[in-house]
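Bug #77: duplicate submission created two jobs. Keeping one. Sequence:
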Amino acid sequence: MTHEANMSHTAVLHPQQCNSGAAERRAWVRYPCELSSSCQPVVANRSGRWSAKIRNISAGGIGICLDRRFELQTLLSIEVQQEGSESSVTFLARVMHVTRQEDGTWLLGCSLRHPLSDEDLKGLL
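Kept job's structure:
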């Protein structure tokens, strides 16, 4: 057996490739959306909220797009304005990946601290 046959090969998926086979390996179905939101890091002595758009959501994760980036593993408080209502819902989510978009914004893939129930997910969509 050659040295090459013994080597373990790991595939690296880039965000553009996630539309193919990677989607089937996800734990939850991701739903595209365009929800207005805002977010801020959950850190002492930080102030200010940043406007954001939720691009997709699943029971376990959320993809948000905004004008600034946050470091990996940052815990964010994400507030979502519910359509046709004055109320909002707030989630805690950890930044798992950050991708700069062509328009200069940042897409943050976040893992929700507490998974959403089917009812909560349907309520947002």
